[in-house]
Amino acid sequence: MKIFTSVKRFNEPLHLESGRMLSSYEVAYETYGELNNDKSNVIVVTHALSGSCHAAGYYDGDRKPGYWDNLIGDGKPIDTQKYFVIATSNIGSCFGSTGPMSLAEDGKPYRFRFPVLTISDIVKAQKNLINSLGIKKVKAIIGGSMGGMQALCYAIEYPDFANMIIPLATTAYTRPWAIAFNKVVIEAIRNDPDFKDGYYNPKDIAKNGLKGLAVGRMAGHISYLSKDSMQSKFGRSYVEQDGLYELFGRFQVERYLEYNGYNFPHNFDPLSYLYIVKTINIFNAARGKDKLEDALGHIKSKLHLLSFSGDILFYPCEMQEIKDLMDKIGNGDLCSYEMIDSSYGHDAFLVEVDKFGDKIVAMLEGNYGK
Question: How does strand 21-22 pair with strand 78-79?
Answer without folding.
Answer: unpaired
